[in-house]
Amino acid sequence: MRLMYEFAVTPAVTSIRRRGVEIYDVAPDSLGAEMDLESGDRIIKVNGRVVRDYLDFRFQTSGETELVLEVRKRSGEDWEVELERAEGEDFGLSFEQIVPRQCANECIFCFCNGNPADARPSLFIKDEDIRLSFLYGNYTTLTSITEDEIRRIVEQRLSPQYVSVHATDLDVRAYMLGVDKQRADISTKLARLLDAGIEVHAQVVLCPGINDKEVLTKTIFELAAEYPRITSVAIVPLGLTRYNIDARLTRVTPEFCRDVIDQVSAIQKELHAKLGTNFALLGDEIYLRGGRRIPARSHYGDYPQIEDGVGMVRSFENEFTKLMRRLERDGWTSNKTSGTIFTGTLFAPVLKKMIDKFNARFGTGLIVEPLENSYFGGDVSVAGLLTGQDLLSARERVVGEFVCIPKQMLKSDDAIMLDGMNVNEVSRELGQPVHAINLQDLATLLLNKN
Ligand code: SF4
């Protein structure tokens, strides 16, 4: 898996499996409130069918207007609630998060091996969960998918699914995942999903000397043979922190990135002529580290795997250019707002170019500061893995009236960074307001400061 969504639970909690799904909150005056449902109650069955999580609840209530819910109240009482609702009427219920199923692989590049020993427990969760793949784009390897899970994907149309393939060569795949060849072989399972019309996006984590060169070429062509059932393959580079000391792994270099770009560009041309799509898309990191231009917007189609860092830079540049045009059209003038925007060392030069243009056009005094990642070290240079300590160590570089940090630095459901520091703490230490934003929201921030 490559981390797209971080869990709010600790591994200890994941081992407890209770029946039903717990209600987290009930909106006032909602159908749920009318039914006297409360936070802490558990919905066990809907119309006689077992509910395992909120996806089941959503699926089993969808389109139903007459319902019988079996509820285990917080007090321990069992209720049976009969209700009628208008078509599409919302229950006003929010539910506990899905408890991720753990993976049974021992991938040589697993991100868990790259964490410092004192990283927070949620960073050690090795999830392999088809529900999270559907909901958040987390990748699964399908090595331990059960018959029930396959049926569930098909029945509940949990499509698309994001699958880490890494290599179609079975020996290589088994070696990379740390499993035997029988387990590594997902051809039958994959075929069942594809035959049932489930859309699949594939991923390759590219490890120099292991699944590159001819192994990569074979992988791309064998996956492309299933196009359009397999929609795309994202190729992202191996990322090693200072804690990855596995001698089987070789660090990705700029030269390696340039070779991969040359190799894959030729394949993309061939596939484009045949399929009308590039199909195999390289992660932004490969272009940035190789010192090559990020491809044009048309290269990415509808950005099928943007959340995996494939086309994110191109999309951002385009949005930023649109924003500048809009501000120009609206005659926006700044009051010389100044501030510091921190980001990872990889993206900083790209962002700096854009912000320099912005300053020249609108008279703002924004500066972009690259932040080294001292927490993970190694070749980690993306913004999402920066920490509070990294920010504090750059305090002398803060200028202006505010600090911006990328929103990806924070936990998905809390203003906490990977080292446990929260935004308010960092803000206090820096003596500046700190805004965690999507860079697309920078304009809103500036407009509010005007
Ligand atoms: S062992 Fe592999 S599949 Fe499992 S969490 Fe780590 S990288 Fe993902």
What is the structure about, briefly put?
The protein contains 16 helices and 14 strands. The chain is α/β, with parallel strands linked by helices. Helix 9 runs parallel beside helix 10, helix 10 crosses helix 11 (284-290) and helix 12 packs parallel to helix 13.
Description:
The chain is α/β, with parallel strands linked by helices and 450 residues long. Helices cover 33% and strands 16% of the residues. The protein contains 16 helices and 14 strands. The strands form three sheets. Strands 1, 2, 3, 4, 5 and 6 form a six-stranded antiparallel beta sheet that branches. Strands 7-8-9-10 form a four-stranded parallel beta sheet. A four-stranded parallel beta sheet has the order 12-11-13-14, sandwiched between helices. Helix 10 links the parallel strand 9 and strand 10. The chain is globular and about 65 Å long. The two termini are 43 Å apart. Iron/sulfur cluster binds next to loops.
